[in-house]
Structure formats: structure tokens, C-alpha cells
Amino acid sequence: MSIFVGNLSYEISEDDLTDVFKDYGIVQRVYIPVDRDSGRKRGFAFVQMENKDQETKAIAALDGAEWMGRSIKVNEAREREERTERTSFNGGGGDRKKRY
User: Fold this and answer.
1) Three-state SS for 4?
2) Number of other CB atoms surrounding residue 89 within 10 Å
3) Domain chopping of the chain, boundaries
4) 53 to each of 2, 35, 47, 69, 88, how far by Cα in Å?
5) For 47, which DSSP code?
6) I need a surface site. Which of 23, 33, 53, 100 has the fewest CB within 10 A?
């Protein structure tokens, strides 16, 4: 299981998240996604703890908590959904008939 942490400040660091979550158990991993183009943090993160009990306690205690001036959202992370590959890059336009 992994924990999703949303509505985070863009100034957040892995150490900041580790400090908050260590009160509920052993933090194994913190991942803060960044925007591909700008390199800016995206305002959410994922935290993995040693076991499910620790993660459950952290979710119960931190969901909705005020932290760094924001009300954070903390819940169980969902599995990443499969993306379908785009097969056409024709710009859309539906089923238009070509005019010649």
C-alpha cells in the first residue's frame, strides 16, 4: 500500500514529509512528482511506510490536517490506471468529409 498526500505546498521536501509521517511509524519511501516541462513540484506526494497498520494510523490522523498553511488530503493511493495509446494525431474534428 502507498499513501497519497494532496494539496501540498510547492515548497515541500522529502524531509518535511518524512518528519510528519515518522510519528506514525517507519517511513520507507517518499516520492514527490515534478512537472516534466517546468521541473516544479506538482502539489502532491506518495509515502510508503513499513506496514499497513502504520499507514492506516497516518491516514486517520493526518487527513484534513492543517499543515504549512494548507488543509492536506491524505488517503490510500489508488493503482495507476493504464493509459491507452493514441493512434491518431490528426487534430480531431470528428467524422468530417473531405472536400475536393
Assistant:
1) strand
2) 6
3) 2-76
4) 12, 32, 14, 28, 46
5) E
6) 100
The single-letter DSSP state of residue 41 is B
Task: Decide if 68 contacts 9 (C-beta within 8 A).
Answer: yes
Residue 54 dihedral angles phi and psi, to the nearest 5°: -65, -40
Q: What is the pLDDT along the chain (100 residues), one digit of tens a residue?
A: 799 999 999 999 999 999 999 999 999 999 999 999 999 999 999 999 999 999 999 999 999 999 999 999 999 998 877 767 665 555 555 555 655 5
Cell 517507519 maps to which residue?
26
Q: Which amino acid is at 76?
A: E
CATH placement of domain 2-76: 3.30.70.330
